[in-house]
Amino acid sequence: MGYASYRAFTTGTTASASPRAMRAAHDGAFLYTAQLGLNLAWMPLFFVLRRPVEATADLVALLGLNGYLAYVWAQVDAGAAWCQAPYLAWLAFATYLSAGVGVRNNWDISLKEKDVKKVQ
User: Fold this and answer.
1) In this structure, how many other beta carbons lie within 10 angstroms of the beta carbon of residue 45?
2) Which of 10, 39, 43, 47 is the most buried (most CB within 10 A)?
3) How many domains does the chain contain in total?
4) SS3 73
5) What is the pLDDT of residues 11-53, one digit of tens each?
């Protein structure tokens, strides 16, 4: 992700880049920052707050945002867009796991009273 963002931004902001590529590079930088925020939000949603519905929704949004980011970066540099492919695959698998945990636990993974006593 980091290398892809570096590659897209530096390619899109060089003096020889077209105005369209420059705009796509700046849009990509904004989208990259937004996806970092969504990425950061997932862990506390799932592990701290134990909210699998919201965590899965976050992952779905993250997957969609990164798919669009790959599309935007493809307008600047195809290599940067292809660098997103493994991350998109991981996000799809993480969405499957998050939804699976939710479904198998009736979308309730809160600590039960007996579990809280074991932790203490």
Assistant:
1) 19
2) 39
3) 1
4) helix
5) 888 877 788 889 999 999 999 999 999 999 999 999 999 999 9
Cα torsion at 96, 102, 54, 46 (round to 10°)?
-90
Helix (H, G, I), strand (E, B), or coil: what is residue 43?
helix
Phi and psi (nearest 5°) for 26? -70, -40
Residue 51 belongs to domain spanning: 2-119
Element (H, E) at 56: helix 52-74
Residue 37 and residue 33: Cα distance in Å, rounded? Answer: 7
Dig out the tokens for 59 from the structure: 């992952």
Which pair of tokens denotes residue 87? Answer: 């991350």
Residue partners of 75: CB distance under 8 A and separation at least 6: 20, 21, 24
Q: pTM of the full predicted structure?
A: 0.85
Distance CA 58, CA 46 (A): 10
Q: How far, in Å, CA of 60 to CA of 38, rounded?
A: 10
